[in-house]
Design a protein that fits this description.
Blueprint (H helix, E strand, L loop, with lengths): L2 H14 L1 H39 L4 E6 L8 H6 L11 H8 L4 E6 L2 E8 L2 E10 L13 E2 L9 E5 H7 L10 E11 L21 E16 L15 E4 H7 L4 H9 L10 E5 L5 H10 L2 E5 H44 L1 H9 L4 H44 L12 H18 L1 H8 L3 H6 L2
Parallel strand pairs: 4-9, 6-8
Antiparallel strand pairs: 1-10, 1-11, 2-10, 3-4, 3-7, 5-8, 6-9, 7-8
């Protein structure tokens, strides 16, 4: 039987029982719609999470630690690491080496410390965090009140909105005003006037340590940000008052890690608790991490955590696909029922076809063509319905977000491969459902079929 004749016969047979075939096709469409709607929601949430994290600058940053502090985040590597006493310090020399690694844009330390903030007659204790100039690209600064720092070492500050409200109920009025930071500065110990107790100390340990001096610094408030930069994922960004990181380094403020330095290093060779290495893009992160590990340091990036996030979304999409396919499985039973009923109604027609020379394969192909046609039309209609359901979900979600004073988001996505896959899946399910009816129709005895009725 020619393809043209096969298509013509299948189309004619579907038109003869249009109501029953339409209802079967509608069942397929509903199954495909539920599958597309659920998967598009999972894909949309994954794209939303990736876009948010990507815009935050988390995916292009590597956090570096000394193996003296953190040997590795991998238990296997921890067992292979040598004696901590022989490991490298995370100091200025190491920072300069990292800056020379290909695809590295900048390397800057984590600077985060406690201060007393004085404004007018008020005093507040809070956390100050240093931000690099590249943080200007972070999305929270797009809609901030005021502006970003005008230079790398300027005496300027950006306040987090909640902290700004604690200083003034009208935070807008703080922009352009001055605040005073009272902080603890680290100063090297004087080498003169050794005490008698130093006679008991070895030459290697004499005059180690530092003294702490209270200092004050005036800063002009230039901006107010609603949230913490980088979503608060980076520990150094968890602050309520932000200053340029170069200025923060210049202040030489006492930090928690400096107590460790006083015990094991000379004050002239301070080390960092951690360094942040920004690379050209996410594809270069792994190569930069490997290069830093070869220098003898521990690394961590959000991509390490993103692998777990990707695994979560794969499992989520799998479960959504399974539940979405249940309706399509029910629809496949409708296809079997429709085609079996068609066999009973068309026994005489099948007998005539076989009598004039149609083979069992021709009969099978005819019923396969009818099942495939229903799957094709049902798949196309289901994709359209699923797309419409997604639009409704997105519309309702944005209404809710607007009532919560949050920006609108696209929580669903229907990529082209999902459209093609859904239609193809509908056709395959329909063809599988047509296996039994087609085989049953092919086994009909033409003599018995012609005597039917």
């Amino acid at each position: 039987m020619k393809v043209h004749d096969l298509v013509e016969l299948a189309t004619r047979n579907l038109r003869e029982s249009i109501l029953r075939n339409s209802l079967t096709t509608l069942g397929i469409a509903v199954g495909v719609a539920s599958l597309v709607a659920m998967l598009s929601l999972g894909i949309g949430l994954q794209q939303l999470a990736s876009a948010r994290l990507g815009r935050s600058g988390l995916f292009d940053t590597v956090v570096v630690y000394s193996r003296r502090d953190i040997s590795s985040f991998d238990p296997g590597e921890r067992r292979r690491n040598p004696n901590p006493a022989n490991l490298r310090e995370l100091d200025l020399a190491a920072r300069r080496e990292m800056e020379k690694i290909p695809n590295v844009i900048e390397v800057y330390p984590e600077v985060r410390f406690q201060v007393e903030v004085r404004y007018a007659d008020q005093s507040r204790f809070t956390t100050v965090a240093g931000l690099p100039a590249s943080a200007r690209q972070n999305e929270i600064f797009d809609e901030m009140q005021g502006k970003f720092f005008s230079g790398p070492e300027v005496d300027e500050a950006i306040l987090q909105a909640e902290f700004a409200k604690s200083l003034n109920p009208k935070p807008d009025s703080l922009i352009g005003q001055e605040v005073v930071l009272r902080y603890a500065e680290r100063q090297a110990l004087a080498t003169e006037g050794s005490s008698a107790s130093k006679a008991d100390e070895s030459p290697a340990s004499a005059d180690w340590g530092f003294s702490v001096v209270r200092r004050e610094k005036k800063l002009r408030i230039v901006g107010i940000a609603e949230n913490e930069p980088f979503g608060g994922w980076r520990s150094f960004a968890r602050g309520r008052l932000f200053i340029p990181v170069d200025l923060a380094e210049k202040l030489n403020v006492v930090q928690a890690g400096m107590m460790r330095d006083a015990l094991r290093t000379a004050p002239t060779n301070p080390s960092y608790m951690s360094l942040l290495v920004r690379v050209g893009g996410p594809p270069q992160v792994q190569a930069v991490q490997d290069a830093i590990k070869k220098l003898g340091f521990t690394t961590w990036s959000i991509l390490d955590a993103a692998r777990n996030m990707q695994r979560f979304f794969v499992i989520l999409d799998l479960f959504l696909g399974i539940f979405g396919s249940l309706a399509l499985a029910v629809a496949s039973l409708g296809i079997v029922n429709t085609l079996v009923m068609a066999i009973l109604e068309r026994r005489r027609e099948i007998g005539i076809m076989k009598a004039v020379g149609a083979s069992d394969g021709d009969v099978k192909r005819l019923f396969f063509a009818e099942a495939g046609t229903m799957g094709l039309f049902g798949g196309v209609a289901g994709v359209t319905m699923g797309w419409a359901i997604g639009r409704v979900i997105n519309f309702g979600t944005n209404i809710y977000l607007e009532r919560q004073a949050l920006p609108p988001e696209d929580v669903w996505s229907v990529p082209w491969w999902l459209v093609a896959g859904a239609v193809g899946f509908a056709i395959i399910v329909s063809l599988v459902s047509g296996l039994y009816p087609a085989a049953r129709a092919a086994r009909l005895d033409p003599v018995q079929a012609l005597r039917y009725e």
